[in-house]
Write a structure and sequence with these properties.
174 residues, mainly alpha, 7 helices
Amino acid sequence: MDRPDRTNTAAMSRILSSFAWLPGILAAFALFVLMVLTFADVVLRSVFNAPIEVAADLTRLLMAIMVFSVLPTLSGRGGHISVDLLDSPFARWGLARWRDALANLFCGIILIWPALRVFDLAERSRSYGDVMEYLGLSLHYIGWFIGAMTAITAAALILRGLAFVFAPHRVRTN
């Protein structure tokens, strides 16, 4: 029989896993819209000499959505590109788990500063009333989104690092 804390942990893990596909869908949708927008802009610009005026604003917005929406999920799963030059020695010495724990904790902790800085810049943008040139969308919304996703990424990396220390059997490695 499972202990209640293990059952709660497994249930929480299932809930988090069920929501992990949402950022990927959002990023895929943003990429698809970006591809269609770019194609339409090139065709309209070349054939009819009528570019899409909001294309630059939409491209910036969609790129931010595409990159920062999947960052927490990617980081939480350990899906970043890594160089394995020292994997053999760390595995031979039995230090791979501690290396991964320290790397995740370090990256998560230092990512807090950019998240706070982006929130600060978003608030400054809101106070100035900055808007996108053609869309008229307030820039602070994008800043808040980027700041929130960066903060969630920091939390995901810190939790992943702590999992390497306290529950290494629960951490999925690539």
